[in-house]
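INFO  loader      accepted 1 record
INFO  loader      residues=211
INFO  predictor   begin
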Amino acid sequence: FFQVARGAKFDPLDFTGSDGTEYKITAPDYDLSVADNPVDTSKAGSSSTVKLNATNKKTGKKMTVSYTVLISPKGERQLVHGYMPRYYLNPKTKLAEWFSSDSFHNKTKILATNDTKIIDGTSYTTVKQDGRDSLMRTIDLIDTKAVTGKTVTKKVMHKAIIYNDKGKAISKTIPTFKKVKVNSVYQSIGSQAYYKLVDKSGYIKVGNIDG
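INFO  predictor   done
INFO  writer      dumping tokens
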């Protein structure tokens, strides 16, 4: 997940983040080409999934890789998810830390800034709320319920509990190795990532499938 400033020029293989950091998408053993680039930087707060074709230089094997781009939101906005974790940068470890007792509640109004940073492989955005500066995962600023993906079939690798859209467990479970149809774009509920079941029975944690 990356955040790009409103109105910025955008090249899927070479672009600048909203904080001025330049990102070059490369892979030494692959030739990369753009398969789909729906990013429109004029639309504040929108998010799009960029798809790239990757062809192995030695074997010729092809695969598709993707990433999501958030266009910097404009002005104060209201959170669309339940409870979003609030992070702080530890000055000693330089890592983002979250205390479970300190989260953004549903419908909290926050102001997302252009200050983004990649910490330990995860993109974080600085937000302002009630005079406090803190960090949110960039993915948590995206209304993933509005991001549509294709239906894919996945295999459950160990028994999975089904959750509702609030992240609360439902009594139903899915047995190990059962194949299920899910939306390919996962959603963030609280501090966890979930796949939405296509049959609308609920959500299962990404970790039950992808590890």
